[in-house]
Write a structure and sequence with these properties.
By secondary structure, this protein is an alpha/beta fold. The chain is built from eleven helices and nine strands. It has helices spanning 37-47, 75-88, 102-114, 142-149, 160-166, 177-191, 237-250, 255-271, 304-311, 316-321, 324-330, and strands at residues 23-31, 51-62, 67-72, 91-96, 122-124, 155-156, 195-198, 208-215, 220-227. Strands 3-2-1-4-5-6-7-8-9 form a nine-stranded mixed beta sheet, sandwiched between helices. α5 crosses α6 (177-191). Mean pLDDT is 90; it is low at 1-14.
Length: 339
């Protein structure tokens, strides 16, 4: 079958410039089980329509049942990762997760301060204990967290136990929603954090979960209620929330809206979770994503929908173009009576 040249002006002009998503950075540990840490963060960034970047602070050996061990990345390597990313890419928001020990926190602070002029919103998830119960922050690092990292934070997202540790309160002291309100405002005022979100997932066992959002600029406290889900798929929910909030800030949302949408995203991801492993499984980070059977046009594949139809025709397309009538029509050898 002869080929017919297609005039250049009829081709789709490909500019090579797709819409650029906002870049979001996670500074956190790696979870080999995939449910928390940078793995959860990067999945959340994709689900939010942003471009994920990562600085690895620690490597863990864990699954849904346990954290067997972890190893902190050398501080100088953490700084090099941060400098490499921040010097080259227009980061719109960032978050921290597992920081392991005082030397890691100090490295993050040093590198962050070198780029402070860019005023990038920073969400700090003060990771201290894994869902499985393993301590992920050395006890002597709390002062460094309080005095050096928290003053850099735009948003802080502690759970009840983390809020108590930051405020040097006895475990179990925050045992109702009013005390959550008080803790959020106290942390904000003491350490200069503009927004503090105290997560209430561990408070009681009622049908509703209450998260408290304190915004210092307006001295306002908002209680965000969500339906409590009876499930074991809660691994990495803290990482996922802080990542969602960072992504929302990168997309231009105000603090309260970013927090509310992040909380809703986590709740719906818990509802959509599927079983992984035999312990506390992860949420379904991609629950809201929809896949398409064909890709968007690219420089070398300008008509993907047409190609999809051809590939899905189960040989019909090939039989059509190989038919004598079609071939003779193409090369102008078809006799008049065939019409």
């Amino acid at each position: 079958m002869s080929k017919v040249a297609v005039p250049a002006e009829t081709l789709v002009k490909f500019s090579g410039k797709a819409e650029r998503p906002a870049a979001v950075l996670t500074i956190a540990g790696s979870d080999s089980g995939g449910g928390a840490g940078i793995q959860a963060d990067l999945k959340t960034f994709v689900a939010s329509g942003t471009y994920g970047l990562s600085v690895i602070t620690a490597v863990t050996a864990q699954n849904t049942k346990e954290v067997r061990s972890f190893m902190a990345v050398p501080p100088e390597m953490i700084e090099q990762q941060m400098d490499a990313v921040l010097e080259d890419i227009d980061v719109k928001a960032a978050k921290t997760g597992m920081l392991a020990d005082s030397s890691v926190i100090k490295a993050v602070v040093r590198a962050w301060n070198r780029h402070a002029a860019r005023a990038i919103p920073l969400v700090v998830d003060p990771v201290m204990i894994a869902t499985t119960g393993k301590a992920l922050l050395e006890s002597d690092a709390l002062d460094t967290l309080r005095n050096e990292l928290l003053p850099l934070a735009s948003v802080l997202t502690p759970n009840l136990r983390e809020a108590e540790a930051i405020l040097e309160m006895a475990t179990g002291s925050i045992d109702d929603v009013q005390k959550m309100d008080d803790a959020a405002s106290l942390i904000s005022n003491r350490y200069g954090v503009p927004v503090v979100i105290v997560k209430g997932g561990h408070l009681g066992s009622g049908s509703v979960v209450v998260d408290v959002v304190y915004v210092s600029a307006s001295s306002s406290t908002t209680r965000v209620e969500s339906r409590r889900i009876d499930t074991d798929s809660t691994h990495g929910t803290g990482c996922t929330l802080s990542a969602a909030i960072a992504a929302n800030l990168a997309l231009g949302m105000d603090y309260l809206t970013a927090a509310k949408r992040g909380i809703r995203y986590v709740n719906e991801a818990i509802q959509a979770a599927y079983p992984v492993g035999s312990g506390n499984g992860p949420v379904n980070h991609g629950y809201a994503l929809r896949t398409s059977p064909f890709a968007l046009p690219t420089q070398h594949s300008q008509h993907p929908f047409t190609q999809y139809l051809k590939d899905s025709s189960q040989g019909l397309w090939q039989r059509y173009i190989d038919h004598p009538f079609v071939q003779q029509a193409a090369d102008a050898s078809l006799s008049r009576h065939s019409f």
